[in-house]
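All the exercises in this workshop are built on plain-text protein records. The record below serves as our worked example for the rest of this section.
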Amino acid sequence: MSTLLSLGHGYSARALARRLLPQGWRIIGTTRNPQKAEALRAEGVEPLLWPADPGPALAEATHILCSAAPDAQGDPFLRAAPEIARSGAVWVGYLSTTGVYGDHAGGWVDETTPLTPQSDRGRQRVLAEGQWLATGLPVHIFRLAGIYGPGRGPFEKLREGTARRIIKPGQVFSRIHVDDIAQVLEASIRRPNPGAAYNVCDDNPCPPQDVISHAARLLGMPEPPAVPFAEVAPTLTPMALGFYSESKKVRNDRIKEELGVRLLYPDYPQGLAALLAEEQS
């Protein structure tokens, strides 16, 4: 039986599980939260409360996916359980971020672009990528753009009244629907290429305020007023400041050419329309 050990079983990993479980896969997902463990069990995932002895799960895992955020020392799972490096898994995926490329003043980047992160978050991701590759396992790196999907996107913020159209001239960003992340991961499992890195993003990098405006129109709501970045910068979180400190357009040719992926939602208008239709169904 194909068995996926999902380290840090979060939003993207759960989308992958929804694709694999109907195909007869066994999914073991780690979590630190007992309540979340029960929710995973209800979804058909076997929860593994962390910290735990990963030995039995590692012995049975044919595939491993790590979704955990790193820290200043790199990947927390490799540090806590170095025996992961001795796994017999035939495929290992690590979810990273396009933040590893740093700022390119709105220019294009691809997987061959040098990694020049400017934020602590980006530098930690570069460190963790290297740590996973150094294990000698059949590791695949997935650099994710901004993730949106059910329960996670502009609709929620608009309804809560917290959405802001922050304007920073020249700011461009890429994004990806969580279901497209899942199909990229499954495609890689079917066509493994150890050591490869893949940008996971849609075809339509654009200013972030455009997404808010379009979502407001779909909801029939007035778009939030435009606010200059310089005016709100002192109120932003470190993560948000990191987001606005980098501007780039990310190429996704490799997932199409090497993995045969045809995006379900190649741009945000299609992705948002699908989310709204799902809500209303």
Remarks:
- The mean pLDDT is 96.
- The chain is about 35% helix and 20% strand.
- The radius of gyration is 19 Å.
- Residues 5 and 57 are 7 Å apart (CA to CA).
